[in-house]
Specification:
Layout (H helix, E strand, L loop, with lengths): L2 H41 L27 H18 L11 E2 L3 E5 L4 E8 L5 E10 L12 E2 L5 E3 L3 E9 L7 E10 L6 E9 L11 E2 L10 E5 L15 E10 L14 E5 L4 E11 L9 E7 L1
Parallel strand pairs: 2-9
Antiparallel strand pairs: 1-3, 3-7, 4-6, 4-8, 5-7, 8-9, 10-11, 11-13, 12-14, 14-15
Length: about 300
Amino acid sequence: MSVKIWSTIFFAALVLAACSGSNGGDDAANGDAAGDAAVAGDALPNPADGGPVDTGPMDTGPMDSGPADSSDEDSGSEDQGARDATEQMDASETSCAVLVTDTNILNFTAGVPQAVLRMSNPSACPLIISSFQIIGFQGDPASPSIDDFSTDLAPTEIAPSGFLEKTITYANNDISADDLAELHVYSNAPATLDYAVLLNAEDDPCLPPTPVITVVTMPPFQANSPIQLNGTMSGPGGPMATPATIVGYRWSWLSTPGPQPAITNPTGGQTSFTATMSGTYIIGLHVENSCGRMSATEASSTFVIP
């Protein structure tokens, strides 16, 4: 056989051997893949076999989205609450002011209608008095004694180691013989934010005055002629021991047959009017005394003009 033929055969054998090796590698790779699939198949049942699909244990616990971080929110709320508390804190909580009075009872009588309350501040802080208030005994808002006492109620301030004297005046303007009220002092002194002083008065009652009309003009009364009247004989009332005086007059018409005639000096002790037409005229009088009482009833006089 010639050399050329052998060369051809040898070359063909080399090509065939190379091809066989390549296919073997692929088969081995395929075999490994098949084996892995078989192992996986044993772990996960095939739905085609009719059995239940095992998807592995199900985690039925609550979904853990991680702990809610509320620390920032809580911290913010606490900070805001602290700020609010600080803003609402009364000035007294940080003040060292002290309110001291020389007495907690002020006594009044008919002969001593005024009393002085001395307030001092033996501290190193200013004592700020925001207001004064006079109320009824034991907080009674309707006590008739409240307006029997008066003083300057304006806010004020007492310097460190300073003092202030406040005058309270008593004037009995009712029929009570005893009057009780309370003077409240509101300040920034931590120990005495609302300090009360008892106001105690023993006095003769202020009796109401009695109006009396005296007709100066003698009848018969005529139209277009002045009629003179006098109210100065009215009873003054007041305390039994020291009678009051009349300090106010109030004349007014109770009835007229037509337009009301003008009353000259309607707030004076003496007055007059002029009837302009026939008919009946009725005039009235109220009086007020020096201890503050108004007449309980109204005096009246009737005039018939022909």
